[in-house]
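In this section we walk through a basic example: taking a raw amino acid sequence and producing a predicted 3D structure, encoded as discrete structure tokens. The instruction is simple. Fold the sequence below.
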Amino acid sequence: MAVYQLDDELWFPAPHQGEDDGLIAVGGDLSVRRLLLAYRHGFFPWFSFQSGCQPHWYCPMDRFVIFPSEIHVSHSMRQLMRQQRYELTINNDFSGVINGCAKADGRFLESGAWLGPDIVEAYTRLHRLGYAASVEVWERAADSDNGQGRRLVGGLYGVVLRNAFFGESMFSLVPSASKLALIHLACTLEDLGACFIDCQFETPHLKSMGGRHITYDEYMQQLGPF
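The resulting token sequence is shown next.
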């Protein structure tokens, strides 16, 4: 097992050689070309921006994903969806979502926070080029009949390549907003024939939504060649 030092050249080491937690390389940059190369091979950056350290690149051999057809929608979520209290959109406010993910609940100030200005700028560039997308959850003002005065109350964003969505972060300002966003994403991806949502790491929240583990080799087989 080893952790490699990246340089200005555009490359990544063989993914099977990383640490048990998936860390395999440090350094390099967050350019569009490097990020696209990373995601095409199952790598993603994750590091504390407050410490001023260089990018850390992870590629776990055990992958946690949600297959769109397997998204779990609980009875309570079905009830919430039927109430139509919230409006869901895609790519309507990428900036609002990524900054919401960065700052909701004071995340930006926490020790080890990773979604800093460099990450926001890098993924905004990806979005402008069509490689990153957002799902928004809106709450309309009580006196609004035409969609004006709505408030962004949750959402998620991630990278879009070929037939997969690589989830990066989500946030909620009201109960279950991120769940609504994830369900909307999964339904949209299923209609498009996408293969999976990469969740990166297991969490109780994502497991309850239908996430499960697959091997890196199966993950790459599902993703297909570029």
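Looking at the output, two observations stand out. The chain has seven helices and eleven strands. The chain has a mean pLDDT of 92. In the next section we compare this with other chains.
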